[in-house]
Amino acid sequence: MSIESIFASDKFNFFQTITPYTGTKKGLFIYRVICLIILLFGVYCSIYATINRDPKKGDHWIYFAYFTNQTYYAIIIYFVIGIINYLRDAKGTLKGRASSTFVHVIGHIFYNILFTLAFIVTIVFWGLIFPGMNTSFFTFLHWIQEFIQHFFQCVMVGIDWYLITVPTSYYHFIPMFVVGIAYLIFALIYHKIYDIWIYNFLNQNKKTWIVLYITLIIVWALFGLIFAGLQKFKNRNRKFIENDTEESNGEEIELV
């Protein structure tokens, strides 16, 4: 089996990412522009919240090292790519495949796992992190930042995920597994350099840290399997376009 067939990337093309299941390409484009504006405002709010951070933490602060922020910027890139691809399609310059097979598969994986990552961020933040946060110093912009960056980003990318029809495979749990391992390695390197744990629950001073690490990686992979299953369920009665000619020569292939 080739890497394309393993991830079902041989059935994927970039025209699928700009063609909604319901509505028009232009409508999806406008939606993405609105989402991008909201997300960029969220960037401003997150910078504000970092500058005006919890006074109890003194000079200690973290920004891009948070998995939340890394996922947030990935979501911004997602909407930017969607907007650019719409404009390229309007000009007739959008191609269905990347010139490199590896890049094509990576692009397909990106479209498969991003909503999963956004969902994990939302669950972890509101379930594990927010209950222990000090919010006594919060201003209106602090609250806006929390809701945009830890809730609305998931809603926005989730709606987009629902609207487009992209093939998937249960093997997409593998990239999720890799992302989980990669972030834990990153957190360990960050701690080694700055002597700071990005998240307190990653602290290895706890006797059960290795169990927690293994559990996190397994849960990450399970989310990959679950969301691949959800996407297959979502796609069960849909068709995805094979190329850019929806109305004429473009053959629509039924998802199985």
Describe the protein's architecture and organization.
With 256 residues, the chain is an all-alpha fold. It has one domain (3-254). Helix content is 61%, strand content 2%. Helix 2 (25-51) runs antiparallel to helix 5 and helix 6 packs antiparallel against helix 7. It is globular and about 55 Å long.
In whole angstroms, the N-to-C terminal distance is: 18 Å
Number of helices: 7
Strand order of the largest sheet: 1-2
In which range does the helix fraction lie? Answer: 55-70%
Specify the biggest β-sheet. 2 strands, antiparallel
Low-confidence regions: 245-256
Average pLDDT rating? 90
* Strand residue content: under 5%
Structural class: mainly alpha
**Overall body shape:** globular
Total strands? 2
Secondary-structure element series: HHHHHHHEE
Q: Any idea how many domains? A: 1
The Cα radius of gyration reads 20 Å
What does the secondary structure layout of this molecule look like, with pairings?
Blueprint: H1 3-6, H2 25-51, H3 67-91, H4 101-129, H5 140-163, H6 173-194, H7 209-234, E1 239-241, E2 252-254
Antiparallel strand pairs: 1-2
Can I get a quick summary?
This protein is mainly alpha-helical and 256 residues long. The protein contains 7 helices and 2 strands, in the order αααααααββ.
Task: Offer a few descriptive terms.
single chain; 256 residues; mainly alpha; two-stranded antiparallel sheet; 7 helices; globular
